[in-house]
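Re: zinc ion structure - here you go.
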Amino acid sequence: MKIALVDNIRTGATKGATGICPCCGSQVIARCGEIRVDHWAHKGARHCDPWWENETDWHRSWKGNFSADWQEVIASDEITGEKHIADIKTDYGLVIEFQHSRIDPVERRAREKFYKNMIWVVDGTRLKSDYPRFLKGQHNIRRTNKQGIFHVNFPAEVFPSIWMSSSVPIIFDYKGSVSLDAQNDPRNLLYVVLPKNDTLAFMTIWTREHFINAVIQDKLFTNKEVVKIQEQQTLTKRTTFSSLPYIYQKGRFVKRRRF
Ligand SMILES: [Zn+2]
């Protein structure tokens, strides 16, 4: 965890400090070493939230784009009392979970059901095959009659299949925590897959700035808008997606002449 309570104040980990876990109320110890990011760890025991995953630099830099008050917010179910730590929870109730590790589909569904109004941001650099699959699979991505909305023909040929039955939007971040030199590198953008409706999957593309600002200003699309896109039977145009600077040809990636 990035945040624990020290004298009841939400505080970051500093060497030698102890604090209280804002989720379960037990003691946590600051861990400040060279291998992992500075964090708070539960004393001896496992993390109280079974959904918690060890944080990477990638998690930290994403969380850092938002107000400290929105980071690591305790969300609880009023009826069952079940509690979890949301990576980001905005003032207006949107939860963003940053997922690096592989997630079991049962847990993914449980988390979507618990948070309801949520978006996943998935680290697309976890498996070496994820980004090549995306580049190779782009012939499945077609423009639609709606500006900026694409239809994905066989989503599992483009994105990791484990995410394709999700009930909430999923953002794939193929950049991870590396810095990219080329401005037109497709990994600078975020690929947003909208909840699936039978066999149709829609996708949109955002810059990081657009996503972050839309979250901060509560201007992200709502689930209602997503349903509207799908109910209006967005028409697929025959032209294929061609916004990426690379195309996959004869077993290798070739840079487009014009981008
Ligand atoms: Zn705890």
